[in-house]
Amino acid sequence: MHRLRNGLFQLLVVALVLLGAQAAQQWRWSDDLSNFGRNTLSEQTRALVKALQGPVGLTVFLSDLPVQRREVERLVHRLNAAGGHVELHFVDPARHPTEARDAGVQRPGAALIAYQGRHERLEHTSESTITRALLRLARQHEPWIVSLIGHGARRFTSPGPADFSRFGARLEQRGYRMFELALLESPQLPDNTALL
User: Fold this and answer.
1) Are 56 and 86 in contact (CB under 8 A)?
2) Does residue 87 carry a pLDDT above 80?
3) Is the pTM of this model over 0.70?
4) What is the b/e burial string over 124-147, where b = at least 16 CB atoms within 10 angstroms of the residue's CB?
């Protein structure tokens, strides 16, 4: 009787372990306990990554530094876990200087991000820089902000003290292209003008 009870108990323990393993495979749960949720993607980034059609290429120009590479790998893992398809490649600029020079990379940690035949260079890899770059790359037709020039109007592209160059630079960071138009020279507005 004692042996039967021990055998049933062991069988019950094995069955519970197998049930727990199966439940762990089907249901995943994670929570970010870090300060300010720094290991969780923002809602905007998750929505953007889910909406992308096709793979995103991310080439990071970084020497064989395990800590920095692991940080980038974790970020890419979070992007892929949110529904993205980011293909990560590392290039050591010391071993491949011509590849880094051809990409226009001047310092370690810079990256090239590519999506649907378009690419952009990033100074560093963080969630915010990748998200902003993907927003710009995902836009099919870049919206232009057209400003009329002539007759002393303030300009978005010249760095004069009375001009709007800092504001224009911020708009370009958000994916808008600044275009200056002199109506006397070309009276037709571009088709993709979003704001005049």
Assistant:
1) yes
2) yes
3) no
4) ebebebbbbbbebbbeeeeebbbb
